[in-house]
Amino acid sequence: MLRIGLIADPHYADLPPKINRYYRESIAKIRESVNRFNEAGIDFAVELGDFIDAADAVENEVAHLKAIEAEYARLRADRYYVLGNHCVWTLTKQEFIANTAAKKTHYSFDKGGFHFVVLDACFRKDGVPYGRRNFDWTDANVPQAQRDWLEQDLRQTSRQSIVFVHHRLDLADQYAVGNAPAVCKILEESGKVIAVVQGHYHKGDYKRINAIHYCTLTAMVEGQGPESNAYAILDIYKDGSLRVDGFRRQCDYTMTIPT
């Protein structure tokens, strides 16, 4: 029914490598993924956050963002964005939107008979949005207003739904959304969400909790050379079953709908 390209955590920056993160190589890595997506004829792509890393000045960060966006824009399909904490460490959310094809930080859309939701967990516990180094990366939350919107959005659709978010919803640790239980309660009670696709945790992971699949993509930035790249194509079948076809370091997953 649908074919979706997925990338997570490129962390592009014109910086030397650090802690196994080869920031400059993300340009070539995303170029490879876009070429693969174009060849596969995907319907759309989603980057799952941390598109860029941290620069020392706004103008340098904007230059990094424009450079990686130029590669992503080679995609011959619609492209979508999930906001990650590194995206707004130096920039504001408005500056990120202004320099990409993103229009909002949380939103939903329909394609191919399915409903898709993008969440923004880049808020402190007190509800203040991330921006200009005003946060601790372990303090990520989906605020009440966005949760109210999510509940209403899922109530209004009759379609099986997939949620994209940067921070994890399937854990209770530093990589997770702080109020993940409140978010997951909405997803589960809707009876419509079949999967959550997320990033942030660079090793990647998979869990199934209360009939919802949680697929965490492997980070693109980790490791040197083309062989260390990581990205995926998500195929969605008519019955709502899913297959993640991983490339390079990304694992494959087959996710069926529980009977």
Structure, described:
Helix content is 23%, strand content 24%. It is an alpha/beta fold and 259 residues long. The chain has a single domain, classed as Metallo-dependent phosphatases (Purple Acid Phosphatase, chain A, domain 2). A six-stranded mixed beta sheet has the order 3-2-1-10-11-12, with helices on one face. Strands 4-5-6-7-9-8 form a six-stranded mixed beta sheet, covered by helices on one side. The longest helix is centred in the N-terminal third of the chain and has 15 residues, at 26-40. The model has no long low-confidence stretch (mean pLDDT 97).
Overall 3D shape: globular
Summing up helix and strand content along with how strands pair, one would put the structural category as: alpha/beta
Instruction: Give the neighbour order of strands across the main sheet.
Output: 3-2-1-10-11-12
Radius of gyration, CA atoms, in whole angstroms: 17 Å
User: How big a fraction of the residues is strand?
Assistant: 15-25%
Superfamily (CATH H level) name: Metallo-dependent phosphatases
Topology:
Layout: E1 2-7, H1 26-40, E2 44-47, H2 58-72, E3 78-81, H3 93-98, E4 107-111, E5 114-118, H4 144-156, E6 161-165, H5 180-190, E7 193-198, E8 205-209, E9 212-216, E10 230-236, E11 242-248, E12 253-255
Parallel strand pairs: 1-2, 2-3, 5-6, 6-7, 7-9
Antiparallel strand pairs: 1-10, 4-5, 8-9, 10-11, 11-12
Helix pairs in contact: 1-2, 4-5
